[in-house]
Write a sequence for this structure.
C-alpha cells in the first residue's frame, strides 16, 4: 500500500487525459452545430512562390457554402507577400460550380514573426453536399482579388 502522494501521482495522468478529451469534445460541438461536420470535400491546397496554403475547411451557412483556412509566408521569405487566393468549387464530375478570388486577413507576421493569416471565400447558393473538391491556389497578382468578408 502506497502513500497518499503516490496515489495522487498515479491519478494525475488519467485525470489530465480526461480533461483533455473534455476540451476536445467541447471544441467539436460548435463545429457540428454550425454544419462543419461531414461531408467535407477534398481540398487541393496549392502553395506557390512566397505563400503556403496551410489549411482549408468548408461548412454550410445560411447563405451558402463557406470555405476558410490559413495561409503563411514561405519559411525563408522575410518581407511582405502580395497577391490573392483563387478558391474554386467542383462537383463529383469535375465541373466547376463556382469560384472566388479573395485576399487573406492580416500581414502574415511582420517584424520577423511568421504568423498565419485567415482567408474566407463565400459561395452563395452552394452546399457542402454538392461540392466534391475545392481548390485553393495562390496567385502573386493582386488585380483580381477582393477583400474577403473576414478582412472587413
Amino acid at each position: 500500500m502506497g502513500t497518499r502522494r503516490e496515489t495522487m501521482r498515479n491519478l494525475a495522468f488519467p485525470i489530465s487525459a480526461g480533461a483533455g478529451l473534455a476540451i476536445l469534445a467541447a471544441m467539436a460541438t460548435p463545429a457540428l452545430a454550425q454544419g462543419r461536420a461531414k461531408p467535407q470535400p477534398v481540398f487541393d491546397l496549392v502553395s506557390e512562390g512566397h505563400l503556403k496554403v496551410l489549411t482549408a475547411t468548408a461548412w454550410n451557412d445560411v447563405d451558402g457554402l463557406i470555405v476558410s483556412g490559413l495561409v503563411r509566408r514561405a519559411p525563408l521569405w522575410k518581407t511582405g507577400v502580395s497577391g490573392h487566393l483563387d478558391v474554386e468549387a467542383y462537383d463529383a464530375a469535375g465541373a466547376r460550380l463556382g469560384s472566388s478570388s479573395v485576399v487573406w486577413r492580416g500581414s502574415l507576421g511582420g517584424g520577423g514573426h511568421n504568423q498565419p493569416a485567415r482567408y474566407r471565400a463565400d459561395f452563395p447558393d452552394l452546399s457542402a453536399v454538392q461540392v466534391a473538391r475545392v481548390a485553393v491556389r495562390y496567385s502573386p497578382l493582386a488585380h483580381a482579388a477582393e477583400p474577403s468578408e473576414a478582412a472587413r
The first helix runs from residue 4 to 33.
